[in-house]
Design a protein that fits this description.
With about 300 residues, the protein is mostly helical. It folds into 2 domains: about 55-255, f41 fragment of flagellin, N-terminal domain (Up-down Bundle); about 270-300. The protein is about 65% helix and about 5% strand. It has 8 helices and 6 strands; from the N terminus they run αααββββαββαααα. It has helices at about 1-30, 45-95, 105-125, 180-185, 195-205, 215-260, 265-290, 295-300; strands spanning about 145-150, 155, 165-170, 170-175, 185-190, 190-195. Strands 1-2 form a two-stranded antiparallel sheet. Strands 3-4 form a two-stranded antiparallel sheet. Strand 1 and strand 2 form a beta hairpin. Helix 1 packs antiparallel against helix 7. The longest helix is centred in the first third of the chain and has 55 residues, at about 45-95. The protein is rod-shaped, with a radius of gyration of 38 Å. The model is unreliable at about 295-300 (pLDDT under 50).
Length: about 300
């Protein structure tokens, strides 16, 4: 009887300990809202949760990359738009200057405006993003894209690099356009000209309206060229917005899938917990009652 009682007590205590452990586990699930607290609870589910979290994190990085890219692209688009407006105004002034109804004094005033517009253009081509990096310097983002030499002539200090950023596993997005392509490659007959060179050639001869050959067509070419650069930037922005929409939808799906894998069914667990508590209390009471009985209780 002593051996049977000892074995019974040991088995009962083990069952109570196991019940207590399961009760604590369910209480932890309710407190955290998570179904799998440790990998050992459900190794397969733990692996699936880890994969889902990694996919969601990677998707979030792509969304963040698109946000950064859109910011730079919008700044570049705005800068190119301003540059186009400036060149258009210079074109208008040049057409006016060729009109004989304007005097030399009038042309001097127009020239002053052209000079101011050229200075404004210099500020535009050296535009920076929110972090202070040059928009049009290629890979040399930490330096000004353009500088002026001792004679006041504008020189490009960047390179032809085009920065890209990942917005999907196999998809990249351009962050802008280099300054040489945007401002130094205006088609002119059989060559290319700098926008600043075109403006300076007109500026130098403005008082007498004795403009170089092709001056007007070069200005028109500069306007068309800037429009093409805006089209390129616009295409990148459209690509960014389309991919952003795809990624946002995917993020919702990934979140839902992760929730199914990870989140606990609180209602179900509370019901199970209540049952466990009742069973534990009943088992504890039974064990206490039986533990108080002696051999004479069983012989009666």
């Amino acid at each position: 009887m002593q051996i049977s009682t000892k074995l019974f007590n040991q088995q009962t205590l083990e069952r109570l300990s196991d019940m207590h452990g399961k009760i604590q586990q369910n209480q932890a699930r309710i407190a955290t809202g998570k179904n799998v607290l440790r990998a050992s609870d459900d190794p397969i589910a733990a692996v699936n949760i880890s994969v889902a979290k990694e996919q969601k994190s990677e998707n979030a990085r792509y969304i963040e990359n698109i946000g950064r890219a859109k910011s730079k692209l919008e700044l570049s688009e705005n800068a190119l738009s301003q540059a186009s407006n400036l060149v258009t105004r210079i074109y208008e002034l040049t057409i006016l200057a060729e009109n004989d109804t304007f005097s030399r004094a009038d042309r001097i005033t127009m020239k002053q405006e052209v000079s101011q517009l050229k200075d404004a253009m210099f500020q535009i081509v050296n535009s920076e993003d929110a972090s202070g990096q040059a928009l049009f310097a290629g890979y040399r983002v930490n330096n000004n894209a353009f500088t002026k030499d001792e004679n006041g002539y504008v020189q490009y200090m960047g390179d032809r690099g085009n920065n890209f950023i990942n917005i999907a596993e196999n998809m990249t997005l351009s962050l802008g356009i280099d300054g040489a392509t945007a401002f130094l490659r205006v088609p002119s007959e059989n060559s290319h000209k700098s926008i600043f060179g075109i403006i300076e050639a007109i500026e130098d001869n403005f008082e007498d309206a004795d403009f170089p050959k092709n001056a007007i067509s070069d200005l028109q070419g500069a306007i068309d060229h800037l429009s093409l650069q805006q089209t390129y930037i616009g295409a990148q922005l459209n690509k960014a917005e389309l991919q952003e929409e795809v990624l946002n939808k995917r993020q919702i799906i990934l979140s839902e899938n992760l929730s199914k894998l990870e989140d606990a069914d609180i209602t179900k667990i509370v019901t199970e917990l209540q049952t466990m508590l009742l069973n534990r209390d009943a088992a504890t009471q039974a064990f206490a009652k039986i533990g108080q009985q002696s051999l004479f209780d069983f012989l009666r």
